[in-house]
Amino acid sequence: MNDSLLSSWVEWTPALLDGLWTSLQLTGGSLAIGIPGGLLLALLMSGRSRVVKAVAIVLVEIGRGMPALVVLQLVYFGLPSAGLTFGPFLAATAALALTTAAYTSEILRAGLQAVPAGEVEAAAALGMSHRDSLRYVVIPQGVRVAIPALLGFSIQIFQATSLTFTIAVPELLGQAYSIGAATFRYLDVLVLAGLVYLAVVLPAGSITRLLERRMGRHL
Amino acid sequence: MSHLHAVLLGVPWTLAVMLAALAIGAVLAVPLAAARRSRVAPLRWAARLAIDVLRGIPPIVWLFIIFFGLGDKVLRLGPFQAAVLGLGLISAGYLAEIYRGGLTAVHKGQWEAASALGMGRADAMTRVIGPQAFRVALPGATTYAIGLLKDSSVVSTIGVTDIMARASQDARSTSSGLTPFLLAALVYIVLSGPLAWLSRTMDAKLRARVAR
Amino acid sequence: MTLTTGTSVVSLRGIRKEFGDHVAVRDVSLEVPAGEVVAIIGPSGSGKSTLLRCINLLERPEAGRIEVLGQAVEPQGGVSAAELAKLRRGVGMVFQSFNLFPHLTVLRNISLPQERVLGRSRKEADARSLQLLERVGLADKGASYPSRCSGGQQQRVAIARALALDPQVMLFDEPTSALDPELGLEVLAVMRELAADGMTMVVVTHEIQFAADVADRVVVMADGAIIEQGPPSVVLTAPTVERTKKFLRAVMDR
Ligand SMILES: Nc1ncnc2c1ncn2[C@@H]1O[C@H](COP(=O)(O)OP(=O)(O)OP(=O)(O)O)[C@@H](O)[C@H]1O
Ligand SMILES: [Mg+2]
Questions:
Q1: C43 lines ligand 1 (CB under 6 A)
Q2: Which range marks the domain in which residue C107 is found?
Q3: Residues 6 or more apart from C32 whose CB is under 8 A from it?
Q4: Is the residue at C198 inside a domain?
Q5: Is residue C35 part of a domain?
Q6: Residue nearest to ligand 1 atom 1, measured at CA
């Protein structure tokens, strides 16, 4: 590692951090929209109506079966022909939120199912409505159980934000690529970008595992 | 119909990238998993670091590092070769952890029983532990393979003419936005169907054999 | 038993409940007048829990008529959510496994249903909860989480939670089976007090002594049917049905 590489890295860091900030915003936006969507799908999947259940399962399977990149391109390049045009950031958020909803629905469904049937029965015996039982008994506990897995998934979505480079979102990879194009030093700047990804992903992974163990102890 | 034809042209490339990467990953994951369980601490740490780095950097970033970065000066590779190398390395990282899970799941008593019978470490591994670990690791590995089928769509970004690339080409050249992408999605879903089926039947077969 | 429906708090007529092709309860009728304590005993799998759970429609019987607090429901037809809520409001239930809500404090466990079901304000609900906690001897436990309470304490909280909705009848399904004997005693003590205060109770139990002391009537079930019933002094000491004798011998031996 020589001085010129280090000084270049220092020089590029602000631009990459700008990109990282965009990546994190994308991650946050997708999760903020996608996880409630996932919860809704999970509730529909564990609901009582067969038709609703079947429709929800099909939606989730389609959502999980489609590569995130396809969803992204579909939303950004495909939907305008159906009269729906989004800017890159909005399209990226919408696409990743869809993927998030499909995946987290399975995670949340497992969480909801982990709530003991006896408690749901107790709520019913107390005269609480089905809605109240979901709202006050099942959802708070189910979501809590799902938190480690949701965190794990959030890390994956953060990594997936790199795909939005393909629709010109100026996130971390996009910034690195622009610098590469300007300086012709692709390797140097892409490695730095890789390190920035690692700097987020690895600590987040450790925190997730820690939480997993903690919660495992308490339940 | 011509849209479907255009997208289908990418299928061989998608499958080729995925299968080649899977093959590379399956082989490289063996030493990686072994090192991860080694009795030599530095070897363990090195393996751990390698796995973390392979899995921590997003696939598209790996492909760019290999194709645009290394390809720039060190190692001239075509898009397909770069794609296979990149996804192969990443797969090695994921599969190593899946193998390790399989090895960990095999009861300690099995090692002890094997050595009590006078089997060497290598013998015990290939005849006793390996087959059982394989059985445990298989569902995880197939799930990974299905994921890889979808993740392989990133190779379109470095110019491999896979399903994804064909779909965007078609969308651009015919300016009929939605259809090619929907067809691409459909093709990916259809392709992962047989894989899921294969995993279920293999799982059932192995289960039956173990039970007998 | 010659009781008219009018005076009964719970009236079951010809209740039949099937699980697949297994008949768990076959044509059982039971009248429980106000203030009576009925103990249901019988071998495992005889349908005691199932019958009890039919009373508040946790199980929907295939045939029969249920009347609770003068409200008749035809469980085979549709039961509206409003009807169900009304019925369950008047019927408290205590389970073998307590089923407290582990993510809520003891106080919240008791107050939440009052707020949601009876529309009480938080303040009213909490005041009532504290009153009941005192009654079951747990005045200092309000802020604790269920996991910090012993099994006996949890079951007493569960009783308080049911009582907080001011039910007219309380159903108990083996409330002490999951507890060590000493902890069971604290629960039984609360139940004795409740009976002494005139609460109408239906108790599925293996505690023959409790049935002997507290119950006004003992109902013996076997194979989904009532095979014998009467005052404990008769049923528990001089049963006439062979199955009852056999069952009681088995329980005493244990
Ligand atoms: N949800 C269910 N699904 C299928 N079978 C059931 C169900 N609940 C009860 N049964 C069956 O119905 C029969 C009566 O069960 P029930 O729980 O009422 O017996 P019990 O008298 O309460 O027994 P125990 O003393 O063991 O609690 C049993 O054979 C049981 O296996
Ligand atoms: Mg029972």
A1: no
A2: 101-166
A3: C8, C9, C10, C11, C38, C169, C200, C202
A4: no
A5: no
A6: C19
